[in-house]
Design a protein that fits this description.
Length: 208
């Protein structure tokens, strides 16, 4: 059977700007309230959220992803898209992950990135991206991005075809202890003899 994925529904009006929460409004689209159209301003369609570098030292992967949301860009609501700024420290990696509801297009702005995805037949597609070059990740497929420079940082911008792309990191989904996948299942899956506590060690390294 083929993959079954869904996309955001088309809006039924020009826009549905997401306002601050209010108990007096009761029209919801995509889970958010709609601001009174007569009170919409140009600032609802503008954000500086992607203008500031992210802290790549806050996690062991040495990367930071900053996304537009209906909080920092209210006019995004119902538009079916998200933008992201990807900051990479030296050798930083966005680990293999999937977006169940979105395809992704990434533009390298600085540095050199090794990017790729795996299709459902097991084929791996990889490419080095230099500044100004673009790569597309199909919806629902495992993909990754890696800064191949061991000294310098890198920067990219991505566009995703959903207001809420959904993100699942393969390693964290299977090995994060908070998700409670039984260790016996993981040992069978990864052919691990866990007498030396490999599963527990990996979970600890992932923050579990």
């Amino acid at each position: 059977m083929g993959r079954r994925v869904s996309s955001d529904p088309d809006p039924l009006q020009d826009y549905c700007v997401s306002p601050p929460l209010s108990p007096h409004q009761h029209i919801f689209l995509n889970g958010n309230l709609c601001k009174d159209p007569t009170k919409v301003t140009v600032y609802d369609f503008t954000t500086s959220a992607l203008s500031k570098p992210g802290n790549t030292g806050a996690n062991p992967f040495m990367t930071n992803v900053t996304l537009t949301t209906t909080t920092n860009l209210p006019g995004l609501n119902t538009m079916g898209l998200t933008m992201g700024r990807l900051d990479f420290g030296a050798s930083g990696v966005v680990p293999p992950h999937v977006h169940a509801r979105a395809s992704e297009v990434t533009v390298c702005l600085d540095g050199v990135l090794l990017v790729g995805f795996v299709d459902t037949s097991g084929r791996v597609f990889t490419q080095e991206l230099h500044p100004g070059e673009t790569f597309m990740f199909p919806k629902g497929l495992i993909h990754f991005l890696y800064n191949i420079n061991t000294v310098s940082s890198a920067l990219a911008v991505s566009g995703l075809t959903s207001q809420n792309p959904g993100t699942q990191f393969v390693s964290m989904v299977s090995l994060d202890s908070k998700l409670q996948i039984p260790q016996d299942v993981l040992k069978r899956l990864y052919h691990i003899n866990d007498q030396e506590g490999y599963v527990a060690s990996i979970r600890k390294n992932l923050g579990g």
